């Protein structure tokens, strides 16, 4: 999709630049015209740093208002055909769709994408934190502190912040019941900033159940999300079995108990001769008929071989033509065609069958089993439901909602929650939420700043200010008095072992443990480290060289 | 200008369409060229040293690169000027030959050009300047040889190597974990080095990167990493004691190169063809099974049917493996690449202790580890990092470190870094200048001054007073006659480079001086630039 939203005026004005260039030319003692090609430009020193700071901060400010449970959404309109609209609050989705010209802004978009791939959540936080770090760095640079000194300070601070978090993590891996409730809380915290916040308990339950079925694997492919418009979000449900969005062939049984399933990936249309260069050449009509007969015979053979497996359900990845379908119907076998590749893989996973492409050895092919296959209706669509499957590794979540936009956003939110949960299952350390981790880190970092001698301590102090900016933003977005709340929070945190954070719902500082606001340690750590890394990268730059854009041929 | 007349007064045309060309001659040409060269050097100057800054480069397609590797900056810079292109070539050749010091060589050349300009202003002929430089460079290289030290290390004691690699890495963005990366680089080089012949084939070290995790997760794998997964989702994910068949023929019916047609005109033929086809697949898989392979790695794709047969016979397989990777696998596992099924024999199979598939992150990304290979001569450095730019930059840094380690194995001599070697050379060249009668003397002195500009830039980038620092170090070197004193870039408190463990390779430094001198000589010798003004 092509969303068009240009960040205007991130580069210093063109006139200004031209003037600067002229100045440079005048002062150059010689007659070099230029080193670069036409249209290529070069920004140096202060100017380059300015350009990248401004670009990065603009991006951070753009997504800033989506942070937190009361964050607002953005509408993205595509420039492509149909001007399709996306409504979202997911940082990664917003940033992915932007057309950005500023190279520093691209760095931030990149880290948010990586955060999405790695841990799934915290895509907005990472950008906001990086933006804040750069904002603080800009102040330091204007007060004549060298960027390298700032970087050194940031590094120390990040290390210290991470240690502070590590000291305060809670790990309930041993206690299964507690762990589950931790997961529930994390899921609810993640979901509360999304469109699903109304029914967060319902969805949190669903997400946790689904993740537990994965048994520690992080392969989210096994959780299938089916979106069907209609009903309300509350009607969404998790299905223990497996739902395939396909129709059953005509004249075939609609319900099978104790099904034996053969999952296949084979051509059931005209089975081509695969030997290269083979072609049919005939000289009379009768021959054509004969060959056609042979072809049919071949297909019939194949069907018979498949039937010899003693199955009553056959699922194929590719098309099944009418002729074999009829044969299957005759044998009373349920044949499902054109299940896509993921569908096949998941079906293999849940039913424990192997994906077959040859059918000569019926005795050694592992068949899939399930208790019941039936056609069900969701809304107006017919779907095929496999229940009572052997290996419960995969499952389906059916999302219902008023419109496609709602469903799309619901899917993204659920995906975030699932990602975080599956990561937490592997790394079971959790933290409190609601700005608590930021305050803990800020406190430790502040202390470090006091102990450090030299110019670095300014940078360390700035780092702690940047950390505090996150709870401030969360409060601001909720329309609360952020200055008051953050000051209160800071005072609370002066006590050892304090659990205070901002409770946006009630609009006051409260005990996060009591309110059950939890976050995954892995997410927080990734936010901290990637934001620092990105800020460092941008700070190190003292020159931007932009090549001439590649000319595209006019296709019109 | 370019008109000549024969004895009858008719003009010859020497340059066609003269009005469409611009032309610079004589001293103007030299001045313009020097200015262009200096402009390029000026861009790189601020990237030198451990406190050097990075450059952000936006490519023609909008892709962003952030780096401080001189060769990379210049290559991506979209340079138009001819002389600037020469400078780009210069840093590239340093990259090919040595791998490190690509920024230094350009800064050096820029300084030489600057000094040359001054000599030209004095009225010294460019050729004399060039010759003076040549003599001076010879003096400098000899002096480097004299002050260099032999470095003793062996497979068990590779600490000195690690330290040298750390010097290289300290100027990159990865200096946060330079220690571990340096160790990885050294171990990798030692694993593939042929210490008898003093040679290292860097092709055997593969550097792979994957976005995600952080830099500390970077690891050295004694084996091969392939960015592929098993061809069938239900094949086993882990194979111990694997016997690997490495194939370059597809699991598909044969496709003879000559054009042919198989005509089907009767039902019988149709039937036989069908049978044959099935048999063909069966034979292929059976063949692999017969020779005892437990893993098939294939350069090409598989037909669905073949894929299932492989799965069915419990023979895991990997498809679409690239040619280079295939070769590496063959080297590492001691197997042979087999181009036809008929030639498959037990001896040609490769052996590996462990082959496993590993998945990353929340997306469905898997990679195949091939470890404990029969012939452990191939290793992989697997880089993790926060984003793509970081990984690219780490790859470049690791490449530099690998090159340094290799150079040390080739030639054990080192010189001290931090500008110490340049200052020592500058002193030596300055002293030698007086021995040369003639105008070249001035050029030689200019060369000495140009050598000073590298430590000067180092000091400048580190936020020190350049002139003050340089003169202090210089007098210290001269007084104590020890060539170890350099610029204290990291503010450690000492400028003894031995204590700071800042080393560079002798051949790297020598090459820098030689290459820079050569290019400068070339630029000085140009006295006429003819170009189409259309451009």
UniProtKB/TrEMBL annotation, chain A:
GO molecular function, one term: ATP binding
Record field: compositional bias (Basic and acidic residues): 11-29
Record's keyword annotation contains Chaperone: yes
Entry's Gene Ontology cellular component terms: chaperonin-containing T-complex
Primary subcellular site in the record, as a coarse category: cytoplasm
Keyword set, alphabetical order: ATP-binding, Chaperone, Cytoplasm, Nucleotide-binding
Intracellular or extracellular location(s): Cytoplasm
One Pfam family per UniProt: Cpn60_TCP1
Tagged with keyword Nucleotide-binding: yes
Chain segments carrying region Disordered: 1-29
Domain of life: Eukaryota
Family: Belongs to the TCP-1 chaperonin family.
Functional note: Molecular chaperone; assists the folding of proteins upon ATP hydrolysis. Known to play a role, in vitro, in the folding of actin and tubulin.
Name listed for the protein in its UniProt record: CCT-beta
Organism of derivation: Brassica campestris (Field mustard)
Organism classification: Eukaryota, Viridiplantae, Streptophyta, Embryophyta, Tracheophyta
TrEMBL record, chain B:
Domain of life: Eukaryota
Pfam families hit by this protein: Cpn60_TCP1 (PF00118)
GO cellular component: chaperonin-containing T-complex
Location in the cell: Cytoplasm
The keyword Chaperone is assigned to this record: yes
Example of a GO MF term: unfolded protein binding
Keywords: ATP-binding, Chaperone, Cytoplasm, Nucleotide-binding
Gene3D superfamilies: GroEL, GroEL-like equatorial domain, TCP-1-like chaperonin intermediate domain
Keyword Zinc: no
Gene Ontology biological process: protein folding
SUPFAM superfamilies named among the record's database cross-references: GroEL apical domain-like, GroEL equatorial domain-like, GroEL-intermediate domain like
Xref: PANTHER family: CHAPERONIN
Subunit-structure text: Heterooligomeric complex of about 850 to 900 kDa that forms two stacked rings, 12 to 16 nm in diameter.
Family: Belongs to the TCP-1 chaperonin family.
Function of the molecule: Molecular chaperone; assists the folding of proteins upon ATP hydrolysis. Known to play a role, in vitro, in the folding of actin and tubulin.
Name this polypeptide is given: T-complex protein 1 subunit epsilon
